[in-house]
Amino acid sequence: MRANALFNRLLGFSGTVVESVSFADQALLVKVRLRSAVLVCPCGRQSRAAYDASHRRWRHVNLGRWKVYIQARIRRVDCAGCGQVRTEWMPFARPGARHTRDFEDLAGWLTKRMSKAAVATLLRTTWHTIDAIAQRLVAAHLDDDRLDGLHRIGVDEIAYRKGRKFLTLVTDHDTGRVVWIGEGHTSATLTTFYDLLGEHRRAQIQAVTMDMTRIYREPTLTHLPHAAVCFDPFHVIKWAGDAVELAYQATPRPATLSLGELTPKQTWQKVRTTLRQPAEHLDPTGWALLRKLRTHHPRLWRAWHLKERLRDLYRTVPPDQAATHLNRWITAASRAASNAIRTLARRIRRNQHGILNAIHHGLSNSLTEGLNAGIRLIQRRAHGYASLDNLIEMIYLCHGGVPTPLPTETH
To answer: How far apart are CA 306 and CA 235, in angstroms?
Structure first.
C-alpha cells in the first residue's frame, strides 16, 4: 500500500486526500487537500468564489514519538450569508482552531481526568495550549440554549477558597449537569440566574431543591412563585441529629450506668455513638444500651426515638401519608421533655411545606452535593486555582455536559 493511501486510512478525515508525507523538524508533516472545490463558510453557506488563499498547519494526535502536523491550502470566502470574509470550514478542525478536532477532543477528554500540566506533558505541548483548548470547548457549549428545557433544578453553594469565598451552583436534576455558576452566596447571585432565564423559561420550572437558608428561598419565591420549593432531606435529618446531640450533652453523666466490661465512662461514650447511628445499623450492644436508656434516661431515649420517626418520613412512610405522619411527629416532638427536641419541632413546623414538597417530588440535593465532591477533586488535582475563571471553566468542562469523545470511538 502506498504511503499516501496508508495515511488516508490512518487519519480517517472525510472529504480530504493525502497528497504527500514527509519528515521535518522532528515531526511528521502530512499535506492534504479537499476533495470538493465548493467552499463552505463556518456559518454553513456554500460558495464557489474564493476571496484569497494561504497554507496553514494544524497539530494532530501524535504518532508514536512523532508529532504530526496537517498542512492544507485554506481559502477565504466573502460570505453573503454572514456578511464577512471568513476562512472556509475544514472537515478535520473546528473554525479558528490550529489543532485538529481529534487532538482537541483527546485533550478535552484527558483534561477532565488529569491536570492541565500533565495533559500538556503527555501530548507534548504547553499548558497554555491545553488551557486554550479547554476554553474553546467550554465556550462552544455554553450558549444560551443550554438553559432551555429546565424543569427541576437544584441550588447549592460551595466554598472555593478560604475567607468565605463561595460559588453558587445551579444543576439540572433531569440531566445531572451544572447549568450555571455564579460567584457569591447571596440572593443577588441567584437573582442573576433567574433574570438570565427570562420569563418564558422561568414558567417551565416546576421544582427547586435547596437547603433551608433564606438566601436562596426568597429570590426563588419572588421569581418562581408557581414552583415547588423542596428542602433537602439531608439537612432535615442533620437538624434531628444535632438536636439529639444537644439532648445528650444536657443529660448529666450517670455514675452507675455500665454495660458488660465497660466502665461507666466508656458506657456513656458508647451511648453517644449509639445515638448517632441509624436504627438499622445498630448491633446487639447498641440495642442493649437503648433498652437501658429507656429505663433510666427516658428523655434521652425519647429524643433518639423521635429522630428515628423523622427518618421514617423518608424511608418507610408512603408519600400520600407523609403529611399526616409529619403532623403527628410535630405534635409528639412539641411535647418532648428536651428543649432541643421542642426547638427542632418548631423549625420543622416552619419549614413543613418545603419538606413535604421534597417527598412528593422525590427530590433532594444529593446530586449537587455529589458535584461538590467532584469540584473538590478538580481543585486537588490542580493543587488549587489562582484564577476563579479557570476553576469555573473546569467545572463546566467536567460537569457541564461538554462532549469530548475520544478519537478512537466509533460513531
So the answer is: 16
